[in-house]
Structure prediction request, 816 residues.
Amino acid sequence: MNETPLWASESFWKKTAIWVTAGSFLILVVLTMDSLSKTSAGSKRVPAYSVINKKIDYQYDKELHKFMPVIGETELLFGKEYSEEEARQLVDLGKKTTQAKNCMNCHTLLGNGAYYAPDLTKAWLDKGWISKEMREDMMVKFLMDPENNARTYGSNRKMPNLKITEQEAKGVIAFLKWMSSIDTNGFPYNFKTINAEE
Amino acid sequence: MNTSGLNEAAQKAAALCEKSRACVNDFKAWVQLDSRNLSDGQQLAVKYFIVAVILFFAQILFGLLAATQFIFPGFLYEILDFSVNRMIHINAMIVWMLYGFIGCVYWFLEEESGTEIVGLKLGNIAFWVLTAAVTLVVLVYLLVQIGPGKDSSLWFINEGREYIEAPRWADIGIVVVMLIFFYNVVATFSKGKWSGIAGVLTLDLVALAGLYTAGMFYMTNITHEQYWWWWVIHLWVEATWEVLVGVIMAWSLMKLLGVRRKIVQTWLYIEVALMFGSGILGLGHHYFWIGTPEYWLTIGGFFSALEPIPLVAMVVHAVYDSGSHALKSGNHPALAWIIAQAFGNFFGAGVWGFMHTLPQINLYTHGTQWSASHGHLAFFGAYATINIAFFYLAIQHWRGDVWMGGGSQNAWRWKWALGLLNGGVLGMTIALLIAGYEQSFIERAVEGSTWGGYFTAQNHPSFQSAMIWRLFFGGMTFAGFILLVWDLLTIGKGETRKAPEIIES
Amino acid sequence: MIEPVALEDFFITFFSSALIILAGAGYALLFSWSKVNPSIRIKIAAYVSYAVLVLAVAVLTRAAHFQGYWLIISVLMAVGYFFAPIGIWHLCVKTHAGSNLKNNNNNNNNNRG
Ligand code: HEM
Ligand code: HEM
Ligand SMILES: [Fe+2]
Prediction:
């Protein structure tokens, strides 16, 4: 009768399973702490909420093979300069509104969500808002009454009226502007902002 | 209202009650299932299975509505919008699969521990509380749908986070019910006997429930929010759920094929090592583009390349075993669905997962129909199949261990259900693959990912016809489901031959 | 850092990735089958399958612009998928040690290992 060698025994694999799991989990915890601190609002990759007072643009970095965010001069939102705390509150209202209205089950945010409607990661910078002068006004109107301000690009897919109030709409726009400044390692690929010359 | 009106209403209600009771009795007489064949734990298990099947039905129904809206966007517009249908589609999926898993565990808990369930009454109460809560959540999804941008909406309507939309009150309820379930498992094993299977199961349930709590917090910072959200989603489906299926599979192999316990448990440990070893840090493949640091590109790429290894191990092992067990099974449908699981897991997770997982290509496919293609094949292949296999094992026992092997009556039903369901999901997967390929190519690579680019891709003829094919194959899936339910209710009825008893070799 | 796949390489990227997994599984299947049922033809088929895998890895390495660190993943896949089935086969044999004695409906035993 052939003996079971140690490396094929139940107890060996039991220990291996425990060590592999614990080891992987420990590494994940360490990486998580590092990632969370490197992506807190106000870090290099995820700007502070007051970035909504600034101009946001993207520039191609040849060495890194990706578009990098460029935070520019002052470009006020709704003609107002927000303090850090005011900006946080406005973005917070917007974020909460996107959850309460279930935006993510039609759109993607940072590429996660549903595929029935366009990605919102850099929606603030999209050429679809025609010009920077018209953008804020168009966005508020669209969010509050999408049906009559529809932007369907010939697809017949209309966003439903989600009973978004004006204040909520402004919050959502602030949230979108802030989100568009996050360094997403070049996602979405090859994105041309509203500032880009044709 | 006057008293006579009230009386009339009461009478009507009583008559309705009577009628529905008669219906239920007729149904019971028709299915001819004898609950005396089941132990207490198994009676609780089949309750979970029944709700699982009903929710599976809801999943398919709302999937069909959402798929129809891709073709006719005006369909149910501002009545049941795409977002509502899709939310119910994927929530029903998560919940029915969890119901199925809980059912499986209750099914074998008594046999594995060698004693009776400790908190049977508590388990029953938990079942009814959970089911009532699920019903309420779905009703609110359907009738209230959305709320103002306040905390109260997240607490009472929905949290607006894909897959875990359930409002916060329900989250807490779910955790409580899971704790009761967990108590039952641990206390029962402690009273009876522990085993390797019991140990892995217990630790896995701790992880599964613990991960759920990681998804229960509101955060303004969307990068952080998505970071934790993936902890729940990825570490569920690519780690804890896989291991839970491993446990269920290990037990079934022992019972179905009579494989020795020592071998089964050694291999369960090997699987845990391979799954957790590749799956936990494989989480990195979701951290490429959400704002997280660049080192996740290398980590995600590396561990994704390892993730198919457990599947290769299964291939080798299956070949090794095929010689020693001549597959003389007394339950052909269950065996067929277990084989479907092996293939489904391999293709859905292994092949489809690897095709879009490296960041060099995921940059284009991320957030397109590509993900939907992979999601459908992987969830169906890995988790729907194993649940269905277990439904067949349960129904066989419920009928009194009748023969369900070769030469059974009406075997065409389970064969057609198997073919239609698998063919339907595979067809949808291929249609979505074509749509995803076209979308990542035109929207991303060519048009530079603008809204204009998105709609150019959506309006493209190949995308449009892919959506029609998806609906067609969705219909096929639906037909397969109907047949499956019919078969589950009738299979083995009137069968007198007994299934052979399997003893550990 | 990464260099994304070029437009014209989309299809080849998906195709070679799928092929890596399929050929890897095919090699594992044929290799273990050749152990159960020793035959030179099955053995050759197993190595052909492995050759396809190596080819697919090479194609993917080019299409996905693997450089530096990423080449480790290519090497790892080529080497790892070669040895994994062998290791797992040995594990199967050893973990089942002893069970063959009691097993009756099975006449392949002597071919094992
Ligand atoms: C049974 C196992 C699996 C299931 C049930 C599953 C399911 C899913 C689902 C539903 C999504 C879409 C999530 C969303 O809504 O955004 C997804 C995404 C993803 N899966 Fe899996 N998966 C499994 C295994 C794997 C494996 C083994 C790999 C890699 C080898 C993988 C790679 C990915 C990647 C890279 C994404 C992100 C797609 C994107 O960028 O949008 N999956 N998975
Ligand atoms: C009649 C059959 C079905 C139809 C018509 C259908 C349709 C749909 C639709 C329209 C979506 C939304 C995709 C989008 O956002 O664009 C979806 C998502 C999804 N479905 Fe289904 N579905 C069906 C069956 C299934 C089955 C059987 C499963 C798994 C067991 C499943 C799992 C999923 C998953 C995981 C998602 C989310 C994918 C993601 O976010 O990437 N579906 N389905
Ligand atoms: Fe994943």
About this structure: The interface with chain C takes residues 1-5, 7-8, 63-66, 186, 189 of chain A (CB under 8 Å). Chain A has a mean pLDDT of 94.
